[in-house]
Structure formats: structure tokens, C-alpha cells
Amino acid sequence: MTRPVQDNPYGVYVPGSKDSLPWLPPPLLDDHPLVPWAEESHAGQWVDVDHALDQVKQFEQCLERLPEMILPKVDMGHLVVVTGPVGMGKTTLIHRCVHLAQQRLEHFARLAPPGSARPGVIRPPRPYVAMTGGYDNRANGISTDARGQFAATQDINTALRNKIVDALSGHFPEPALQRVRGEQDVHQAFLSLSTLLAQQDALLLVLVPHMDWRDDMGSVRTDFLRTCLKHARSRIVLFVEVCHHDPDTAHEVVQEIWPATALTHLKLGSLTSEDTVKFGQARGEHPDPDAPSHSREWLTSDVRQLRKRYFSIAEEQRRTGGEVLVTAADLGAPTLDVTAMARNPSAAVPPPRRHDAPPGS
Q1: What is the pTM of this model?
Q2: CA-to-CA distance for 32 and 323, rounded, in angstroms?
Q3: Sign of CA dihedral 208, 210, 214, 218
Q4: Cα separation of 298 and 321, whole Å?
Q5: In whole angstroms, what is the distance from residue 339 CA to residue 156 CA?
Q6: Residue 276 and residue 285: Cα distance in Å, rounded?
Q7: Tens of pLDDT along the chain (361 residues)?
Q8: Phi and psi dihedrals of 276, rounded to 5?
């Protein structure tokens, strides 16, 4: 397939850049999470690598419990924990789940009869998204205190609450939001937030970034997940991202807070032998689906490296005015770049941190 010279099929637009800057061509990035609910062009760029589609289908089972999440007497939201190695698409998977939830609610809203607004009848809720770490889902503004050190867990929970209130500002009555912000007890704040969401016929989808805890996958992280599960009151769904390199350890951490019907665990692992081919075929570019020798070289790499490599090859072809066509042979052997393992290079080598306190109960 031959594309226009100016088009790189592997580039990603920053959500909102095309609408916000109509007088300036928006730049294409080689590395950005896909946010299909905020940027329409992202919907067609998602690729089912590492069996991510299986995880999406598992999230769909979570949506089947939607009545439990909005009935006031049940008082149960949901916690979705997404685990996987750095660079394997956890943030993109979360955004895809958010998009799926929004589509499902829009479908229910179209089916709701006109008279369903009568007292006692709960209408399909309107979804609102609170990205506490931005589109990239970074924890910098949450997990770091004024001195640049890792914050105490109680302060992290307070920062999450404040980020959520900021995201809802302008949508809900400001006095009610300020009451949520002013609650001294964070758990009580989430209860007040749940009540407000019911009053506004709303469902809140909260994105919580990976926290680089001092004890890594130990008790502090498990306690934080328990706290997040407690935050998941009626009409509140939290998506918590957890980076790891050992799937068994990640499973053990999540297992510590099971059994819980309000918990869904989505797992991403490593690239499979067909994923490099699948990534190229998704753009209609891969001419050589039977090239396992090239695919194997990427098994120890991640989706981010693969996407950036595809982009750089296509960019070079675009600049020279040639045909934008990336083959398996073009990929070559991947090189390890430690600083590129995280979107925030400083996160690759975290600074010393003081021990953080356990979360409040």
C-alpha cells in the first residue's frame, strides 16, 4: 500500500490537538497511549498484541454488573487492576476499556424510554472520566510531595481525591464538589462523591497511575489496592495500573485482596511470536507474514519499542519520498534503551525515597 508522502501510518495524534489547533498541523508522535474515547483516529490504531482482546472481553463481563454499580442500596462500585511489564500497553488497554464503557452507556441511553425519568426509575448514567495522571497516566503529580520525595500513602489518596474533584469541576455544582474536597477523611469523601454522582445520574471512571512504591510489590502496594477497592463506592469505577516484570508476583499481590466481586484483574505479559507481524498487518503494511526469524528477535522487547521502531522506519521512508512500506526485514534486531522503557525517562532510575506510611482505614 502506497501512502501520501506526508503520512506516517504509525504516528499518533495527541488527543484534542486537531480540534484545538485547526490553524496548525498537529504533530504525529511515535509514542502516546491510544485514547479512542477522546481522539477518534486512535480507534483504528489499536492492535490486539499480547492477547489484549481477551482482556477487553473480560472487562465486558465487568460491565454486565453495571446494575450493581448504580443501585444505591447495593453501594458497590468496581476496581479494575491492570498489571503488566513496562511498555506493554496497560494505559492503552485502560483507555480502550473506558471507551467501551462509554459506548455501552450511550447504547443504553438510546434504548431508555422517554418516560424513564419518572421518580424511582434509574436512567442510564452519564459517564465522566477523571484522569488523575493525564492521558499518559503518570504519577508525578500524585506520588511526589513538595520536596520532590515520595509522598505518604495518605497524601497520595488525598491527591487522588483532589484530582477527581478538579476533573469534575464545571460539570457538577461547585458547592457540592467543594464539600467532597473538604472532607478530612478520604473514604468519607468518596462516599460523598458517590452520593453526588447518584444525584447527577452519573458514573465516574477514574484512572489511577502506577505508583513506584518503595517496597515494590509488597504490603504497601497491596494495602493501597485495598484502599482503592474501598474507594469504589456506588457509581465509581477505578482503573489502577500496576507495572511489574514477574506475572506470578503481580498475581499474588492482587490475590491478596480477593475474593471480591467488585474486582477485575486484567493481565498483560510479553510479546508473542505473531505480535510483530500482527502489528504491521493492522496497518495493512506487512508483506511478509511468514517471517518468524525476524519476529523472534522482538520477543524480549515491548509494544512501545515495536511501535517506535515502525514509526522511525516509516518516517525515514517518508522523508526520502519513497513508498511507506515497513517489512519484517526492515525491523532488524531491537536494541535495549533503558531510558526509553518509561515515557518519563526519570522513572527508569527512581530517586531514593523515604518509607511511606500505610493507608488510612
Answers
A1: 0.86
A2: 25
A3: positive
A4: 28
A5: 26
A6: 12
A7: 444 445 788 889 999 887 777 778 888 899 999 999 999 889 888 888 878 999 999 999 999 989 889 987 788 899 999 999 888 999 999 999 999 999 999 998 888 766 555 666 778 899 999 999 999 999 988 999 888 888 988 999 999 999 999 999 999 999 999 999 999 999 999 999 999 999 999 999 999 999 988 765 568 888 899 999 999 999 999 999 998 877 667 777 787 787 678 999 999 988 877 787 777 666 655 445 444 445 566 666 788 888 888 899 888 888 888 778 777 677 776 665 555 555 554 444 444 444 444 444 4
A8: -65, -40
CA distance 243 to 33: 15
Determine whether 117 is exposed, middle or buried from the number of CB atoms within 10 Å of its CB (0-12, 13-18, 19+).
exposed
